[in-house]
Amino acid sequence: MFTFFQASSSCPLFQQTNMKSMNARIIFLLNMILFLRKNCNICNFSIEQRSLCIPLTLYLTLLIAAFFTFIPLHSHQINYTPYFKRGLANVKLKTQYSDVISQSKSMSASDSERNKLISPPELLESIFHKVDEDNDELLSIDEVAKYIHFKTQEHIENAMQENYGLFMTIDTSPRNGLVSWDEYHNYFLKQNSMPDEYIENHEERHAGLDKKIRETISRDKASWFEAAHTDPDYLTLDEFLAFRHPESSHATILSLVEELLDKLDRNDDDILTEDEFAQLKVGEAGEALLSQGEKERREEFRNLVDANGDGEADKKEIVKYIDPKNPRHAREEAITLVTLADTSHDGKLSLAEVLNKIDLFLGSKMVDTARSFHDEF
């Protein structure tokens, strides 16, 4: 046996054969057979030698056949697309979104820690100087609007990234591309430092939990059923986004578009005219009366709703109008903040004026974008 292996390993063909070539493999296999035939003449062997050589030859033949059968000529390029479509995660996806989760958590943690470590006046003063681009110690409407728009975009982008990673993290029992209420609820309890024994055996009403946590669970359950359009017990990826960050969900925006059309589209053609937008329906008969600020609403329709200027707004134009990322929302909030806090009536805000309305600004998108959005939705 030792002589056979020694002879095989010293064979020039064995050493020089290119294992990446099919032709070389075939030649190697044929020469190996010839070698066995030449060096293992069974007829000249004793009974003991035959009993050893025959099983050895069969074993090596099967081993060589298996070697050439299962080792591919080229590395396989695995297509993971079907797994993505079914919501199954491979290692690369899990690693990728683990990084996203870490980044999102670190960004959220840094903002939260900053808000907790310093007092509200210090926080507002810090943000005031960030907003004051021209360093004139006054905030104009344009500066406030620009900063709010930036914070809105940042919040929505982070929310969408964090949502994808969190969805993949929670979807585990089983990993089927859907998140069940039980999966999310167990995750929520774990995030609130509940022990594993309680998570596995808790009662539905959570009578022993803190009142604030119970209220959060009730709100979550109501939001869950509102977002679950396909199945009340499960959420798809976009439904999960609508559940946690409705301001970032396209489905939520489309729902708001439908509500607007339902209120203003009098002829049910899914198109808004300037008259329909400017004149509101009141009364049981639905008669159209001139609303307060009709002139302003007509200007708003022409400048902000009717993007192509044809006198009508289709669903695509209304979606852009309602989208929270539309700069008009930031400008409207900036005008509101300046109007309410500008005691000097110069159209700008000083630091003293901002601090005089501390609660107003702490609840605004200028300071706490996430809370402001979630209060709205």
From TrEMBL:
InterPro entries: EF-hand-dom_pair (IPR011992), EF_Hand_1_Ca_BS (IPR018247), EF_hand_dom (IPR002048). It comes from the Eukaryota. The keyword Transmembrane applies. SUPFAM superfamilies: EF-hand. The chain crosses the membrane at residues 52-73. PROSITE patterns: EF_HAND_1 (PS00018), EF_HAND_2 (PS50222). GO terms for molecular function: calcium ion binding. GO terms for cellular component: endoplasmic reticulum. One of its GO terms (biological process) is calcium-ion regulated exocytosis. Coiled coil: none annotated. Residues 119-154 form the EF-hand domain. Keywords: Calcium, Membrane, Metal-binding, Repeat, Transmembrane, Transmembrane helix. This is EF-hand domain-containing protein.
